[in-house]
Amino acid sequence: MDPLFEAIEATWPPARSWREGAWTLRDGAGGGKRVSAASAAGEVTADQIPMAETAMRAQGIAPLFMVRDGETGLDSLLEARGYRVVDPVFIYTLPIEALTDVPIPRVTTFCIWEPLAIMAEIWAQGGVGPERLAVMARTADKTAIFARANERPAGVGFAALHGGICMVHAVEILPHQRRQGMGRWIMRQAAFWGASQGAETLAVLCTRANAPANALYSALGFTVARQYHYRQLRD
Known about the structure:
By secondary structure, the chain is of the alpha+beta class. The chain is 30% helix and 34% strand. Helix 6 (182-196) links the parallel strand 9 (165-173) and strand 10.
């Protein structure tokens, strides 16, 4: 598997994953698309798609597939079967030292594990509930990041390590604290933490539709390294 996709799997892990035929299947335990989607473990033919569909329905979820860039054959097979594209995602990367060149102001960001109650509340406001917090807890090498501005809570993030990559997930800034540079400080804190753990690359995922976040990562110098999207049956 590509190192970036390995890092995504390791730093945002499903409750369970297993190989079945041409597929890697996942039980996300309610943690969202990334930990619930089936993905190809090799070349896939049209007659192998029902196997994955049956396995996902047995878990009580609607069939959902992750399609990584380059998997044009799988993409065409799913489209022909009535699956629509959902949530195209950019995978951004940056050499980690590019964000460790500026000191973080005192009492601006903190690395904390386990998350404080106020951090869980901020995540909940952004749709990151207990099931996704459980995803974070399953990860081995990790930290949560708490940000403050104007002497008040401002935002949160989550970072974890795999194979020299520090992957950032679940960045959430409170609405009244946005446009004050807090996202930048959270990413810089993730870089400092990752560098201290030996990471060489900082990576972050962002849906194509999230224009403010895409603008932030581009402004910090990130470039798109890989892409993927989901396919889900049309209603």
